[in-house]
Predict the structure.
Amino acid sequence: MKRNHLIRKWILSFFLLILAAVMVFPVVFTLSNSFMTEKEISQSYPSESDSLQDINAHQESFSHLKIIPEQFSLEQYKAFFEMKQSFIDKEQSNMKFYGNSVLMVFPIILGQLIVASLAAYVFGKLKFKGRDTLFFVYMVTMLMPFQVTLVPNYLIADQLGLLNRFSAIIFPGIFGAFGVFMLRQFVMTIPYSYIEAAKLDGAGHFTIFIKIIIPYIRPGLAALIVLLFADYWNMVEQPLIFLDDPSKFPLSLYLSQIIQNNRGVGFAASILYMAPMLFIFGFAKKYLIKGIQLSGAKD
Amino acid sequence: MNFRKQLNNDARISVFFLLPSLIGFFLFYLIPFVIGTIYSFKDGAVGGTFVGLLNYKELLASASFLKASSNTFWFTAINVPIVIGISLLLALCLHQTVFFKNVIISSFILPIVVPVASIVMLWQILFDWNGTINSWIVNLGFTQIDWMKSEWSIAVVSVVYLWKNIGYNMIIFLAGLQNIPKDYYEIAEIEGAGRFFKFRQITLIYLTPTMFFVILMSIINSFKVFRETYLIAGDYPFDRIYMIQHYMNNMFASLNIQKLTAAATLMVGSILMLVFVLFAIERRYRKFMS
């Protein structure tokens, strides 16, 4: 009986491990391919335009997935750093696009952390008339796809003189309702007695917020950072609409151009693009899991 | 009396704490939403006159809108149950003791943070006309499939959606499973309940609140699949994966504000209806539980 159980456990683990390998495969594949030479890439994966769209299949023109490079090389990385993108009036290095992404994503994360934690305290612990209705309105807008408010958002950005500037993307990002929702879940787990005790000691709301709420919801803040980073580092819709000037595009959009025009450096570019994400994931994985699980918890 | 005073006090301080969020929320979300709805009943964005339901009439007569909304609808209707089924199954597997549990869980949630733009190339290599999958198919003696330019394109996009969303749902289910008291199962066992009975009568029932949340999140995330579609197939992808967001983006590009705002309003209406239906079912369910 016991032995049977052990065998079952091994089979289940094995099966799950295979599935897990499938999930991480895209990352592993991209990483290993980023160490191939450009020549090896173009030989292994002839792009659509190179090979004629023949009705009859030619075995040699197929792209065969290759995991292990024939010879380890940093050529792609070097080429990516040296590559310049030319625009009508200027040339721009690839690192500039990296900078674009950072300049948009960091203010959003920082801003939303501050604004959302303040609001989460109110929605989670303070009482006033209409609070729950207001929170419901927040929730509903959180569910809406970006395109729903596209036109008026564009007009407002125009009114405020934000068009074609990063701020047109940063401001709506800061006030996104997701952070409020997520942090509220964490604030609600704080026992009222903590707050009451602090009040008896003569602490004001602001002291309570800084000394009790913020330290208590730290895991929530960490989870929010990861999720916001994942969302905005990957944004497509907003820059497409609000930025006319392609030299201001974030990496997420620029990368698809690189891949179209220059597959040879695409893998290294992809790895450099996802590296910060993976780095943060490694640090905050524990909080991310906790954060997602609490976001699904019922109040 | 004391409570009332407390309420007033809270209200005053609430305004102070909430103000930054409220200003931004109104300016960038609520007001645009209201303006958008108003535009959908006018014949021009700025200074137009009200035309009633004319925009909606034109919208519903437009073939590309119907195509886009039916694509989005079917994509969601098919993929949400699939993603929930798979992630629930995985959560049930991981709820038992397995080896390498941490490694397995980490691998499943990794796709949440991997930007899709960085794996587009793998997708192209796999699904191109001369892609790897086709080479396997040819080797097996079948004819090539034009993955991205046929009915199959929706399946390709579905795979991306599943890849990205299974982990998120799985760990929410896992938390839900951990919250079911163990003695329920023990009692059922003493009374001689079978495995299937335990799953249906205990696990599924107690997982229902979690289920509502997962359904809602999965639906929202199914709308986000536009990103993936856009990065893989561009502005005008094959008919089958032309989503409602493609339609709205293209209406924006061609400055057809009327159709865009009408489509947006219809979409908001449908999402709201969905939320209310889910909440109503949940309320009923809660009554039933207590």
